[in-house]
UniProtKB/TrEMBL annotation:
Transmembrane segments: 663-686
GO cellular component: plasma membrane
Function summary: Potential calcium-dependent cell-adhesion protein. May be involved in the establishment and maintenance of specific neuronal connections in the brain.
PANTHER family the UniProt entry points to: CADHERIN-87A, PROTOCADHERIN ALPHA-C1
Protein name: PCDC1 protein
Location of the protein in the cell: Cell membrane
Origin species: Oriolus oriolus (Eurasian golden oriole)
Cadherin domain span: 6-105, 106-214, 215-321, 322-426, 427-536, 561-648
Length: 688
């Protein structure tokens, strides 16, 4: 419940205000038993409650002007707490104004300069008196001491406030009277009324006759309470119809403006810009100042305008973001709309300053959806792919609608968990493997590699050989594979002459559930080694005998004796053959073409040539190292084919004249002849 009491200010200590127990309808004796207490935010305890009777009385006299300054309604709020059971009552005290303050003027006297040529009806603004009392107790009217040249008239500004003006009733004559002394009196509406007066001294001058005029009689502006020094509040502007210095306007605060406000604000004398000059340490939401515009004439004329400055409360609380629930990690196959987090966003400021807008970056697959009041749900807006982005730092930006707005950010870290949605991928469409024949058993041939962008077991790849046959045999009899790393090994030696190439497929499978797989074709090309010597196809010998070719007895030069034909089962340069004469019974008679293997005569045959000849032909390939084969060809010089071929086991050449046997015989014969001659010579000597 709530109780409202009214009490006049300056009420003496101990004066009765009311009875709490009676007004609340409770037993006064229960107040003490229920441990009553009054709670207030004021530094003084202005009221007291009698624990036995419940009587509410004044504990400290109240000064309405000190408590509430210029507020139209002055309220003091208390809270009465009772225990057993716990009850809370709100007490509101309305402090009524009494006429305890007289009107006062800011200055002890005011001076007005008036040119003597002014016509009757000229007006001059007089200062306003200030009365701290409120309502009817404040200033109500002004009076002016009687004078034949002046009278007082009240004027109303655009905001409804009144101010006094001094009106010229009769033309002035400076030579007759240069100074007029008047008394301005301000009266309030109290009972009895109070008043205050101030001397007004009018000096008659011979100067310009036009005062500056403001564009507006009242200027209104609004600034933030934390505006820094130098902040522009408003720019006032006044014009003067005079020319030259009499029309140049200078701006200043009127003397009626309090010194505190003149310290808080400054006005540029030439531009009329009113700026903040210090800290705006005020409790009132509306400040009132008078701005004066005065020309630069020899006897400056002036006018005033009211400046009302509204101090706007600043937005000094930012939004608070609280994550009440978070699901992380989330699977990458989560459907759009899956809720990830629940957020609470609050702003302690009231009104527009407490309203909040919330958003995240547009380039993320997430969105914020309003839930309950001040709650948002963070949900997925698109399909996720962990292989592209495995985690997200989602920055949530909350901005209130204050001026200026305050922004708060909070980052939510969301991890994406893997699902087996990617099969293994090989680095190429096919693999080509080259291996030399005669490889050792268990030789490493190749290592296939497949990648799987998934992680964990979903990305662990194993390799197998798909069942197939090669040359009629199972593939596994040729090859083996390491299941873990994809290395392929040979289980037998390859023979290029029997198998030049074959292909098979390798399957890569991940360990996900269900498992995904991919296959690739591997082409194996067996390269040749020089492991076969040339085979001589022609001429051929049987049972180790020499092949015989018959050549006409008197054959011409370049006669084709025979052509050696050979073949090599190897490939490429290993099968490139060349032909060479390893031995010839007559090197001047035959020549052999190294490329074609043709054996021809180098000259025409003569009748003196031996009838039998023997040549040895070497056939050599171009391998590394090269291999070779030889064939022995017997050549018989005859015009007709004999019935029986001669034996070509000997050389078929005439024996050399000085071979070892002949030399031995010659030496022996010479020795015998020498001994016989010596014996004859010895006998002859004996006979003589």
């Amino acid at each position: 419940g709530q109780l409202v009491y009214s009490i006049a200010e300056e009420t003496e200590r101990g004066a009765s205000v009311g009875n709490i127990a009676k007004d609340l309808g409770i037993d006064a004796a229960a107040l003490s038993a229920r441990k009553f207490r009054m709670i207030t935010g004021s530094s003084k305890q202005y009221f007291n409650i009698n624990a036995s009777t419940g009587a509410l009385s004044v504990n400290e006299p109240l000064d309405r002007e000190q408590l509430c300054e210029l507020k139209s309604v002055c309220l003091l709020n208390y809270e009465l707490v009772l225990e057993n059971p716990l009850e809370l009552y709100r007490l509101e005290f309305k402090v009524l104004d009494i006429n305890d303050n007289s009107p006062t003027f800011p200055l002890s006297e005011y001076h007005i300069n008036m040119p003597e040529f002014l016509s009757p009806g000229a007006r001059f603004t007089l200062p306003n008196a200030q009365d701290l009392d409120e309502g009817a107790n404040s200033v109500q009217n002004y009076t002016l001491s009687p004078d034949e040249h002046f009278y007082l008239e009240m004027q109303i500004r655009g905001d409804g406030s009144k101010y006094p003006e001094l009106v010229l009733k009769k033309a002035l004559d400076r030579e007759q009277q240069a100074t007029h002394r008047l008394v301005l009196t301000a009266k309030d509406g109290g009972n009895p009324p109070k008043s205050g007066d101030v001397p007004v001294i009018v000096t008659v001058l011979d100067t310009n006759d036009n005062a500056p005029e403001f564009e507006h009689s009242v200027y209104r502006a609004s600034i933030l309470e934390n505006s820094p020094s130098g902040t522009l509040v408003v720019q006032v502007h006044a014009t003067d119809l005079d020319e030259g210095p009499n029309g140049e306007v200078r701006y200043s605060f009127s003397n009626t403006t309090s010194a505190d406000l003149q310290r808080m604000f400054s006005i540029h004398p030439h531009t009329g810009e009113v700026t903040v000059n210090g800290v705006l340490a005020v409790q009132r939401p509306l400040l009132e100042m008078l701005v004066e515009a005065r020309d630069n004439g020899a006897f400056g004329m002036s006018s005033t305008a009211k400046l009302l400055v509204e101090i706007t409360d600043v937005n000094n609380h930012g939004p608070e973001i609280t994550i009440t629930s978070l699901s992380s990690p989330i699977p990458e196959d989560a459907v759009p709309g899956t809720v990830i987090a629940l957020l609470s966003i609050l702003d302690k400021d009231p009104g527009e300053n407490g309203k909040v807008t919330c958003q995240i970056s547009e380039n993320l697959p997430f969105q914020l959806k309003p839930s309950l009041q001040n709650y948002y749900s963070l949900v997925t807006s698109e399909l996720l792919d962990r292989e592209l982005i495995s985690e997200y730092n989602i920055t949530i930006t909350a901005t209130d609608l204050g001026s200026p707005p305050i922004t708060t950010q909070k980052t939510v870290w969301v991890q994406i968990s893997d699902v087996n949605d990617n099969p293994p991928v090989f680095s190429a469409d096919t693999f080509d493997v080259f291996v030399e024949e005669n490889n050792p058993l268990g030789a490493f041939l190749y290592q296939v590699s497949a990648s799987d962008p998934d992680v964990g077991e979903n990305g662990r790849v194993s390799y197998t050989l798909r069942n197939s046959t090669v040359a009629g045999s199972a593939l596994t009899s040729f090859l083996s594979m390491n299941l873990a790393n994809g290395s392929i090994y040979a289980k037998r030696a390859f023979d290029f002459e029997q198998l030049r190439s074959f292909y098979f497929q390798v399957e890569a499978k991940d360990n996900g559930s269900p498992a995904l797989s991919a296959a690739i074709t591997v082409n194996v090309y067996i390269s040749d080694q020089n492991d076969n010597a040339p085979a001589i196809l022609y001429p051929t010998s049987q049972n180790g005998s020499v092949a015989v070719e018959v050549v006409p007895r008197l054959a011409d030069e370049d006669y084709l004796v025979t052509k050696v034909v050979a073949d090599d089962e190897d490939n490429a340069q290993n099968a490139w053959l060349s032909y060479h004469l390893a031995h010839s019974s007559d090197s001047t008679l035959f020549q052999l073409s190294p490329h074609t293997g043709e054996l021809r005569t180098t000259r025409s045959l003569r009748s003196t040539d031996f009838l039998k000849h023997k040549v040895v032909v070497v056939v050599r390939d171009h391998g590394d190292p090269p291999l070779s084969s030889t064939v022995t060809v017997g050549i018989l010089l005859a015009d007709t084919l004999p019935q029986a071929l001669p034996d070509f086991d000997d050389s078929g050449e005439p024996p050399p004249l000085l071979n070892a046997t002949n030399i031995y015989l010659i030496v022996s014969l010479a020795c015998v002849s020498f001994i016989f001659a010596a014996f004859i010579f010895f006998l002859a000597i004996l006979r003589l």
